[in-house]
Amino acid sequence: MNDDSRQLLTEEQAAHVLQISPFTLLRLRVHGLRGRTGPAWVKLGKSIRYRRSDLDAWIASQVVQPTPPSPQIGRPRKTERVSTAA
After folding, report:
1. Per-position b or e across 64-80, b if 16+ CB within 10 A of its CB
2. Cα–Cα distance between 11 and 4 in angstroms, integer?
3. How far, in Å, CA of 13 to CA of 25, rounded?
4. Tens place of pLDDT for every residue, the chain, 86 residues?
């Protein structure tokens, strides 16, 4: 069975796919980074491996949707004030 989604990647290969350093991937796995955890991993003896499908799922979970701007609170700035001169 030659299914790329089930392919096991080393830490270096996974970091390359994610375009991050291997050290950042290690930090994500061990400690998390700014409240985020890294992709799921497989432990084989002393070796850490990543499935390509887990990397793809993690990438999809990191998508951030833009939020609409919040309404202004308080007085408008001088540059935003409407002139009422007649």
Report:
1. eeeeeeeeeeeeeeeee
2. 16
3. 11
4. 456 767 899 999 999 999 999 999 999 999 887 778 899 999 999 999 999 999 999 999 988 888 887 777 777 677 766 666 65
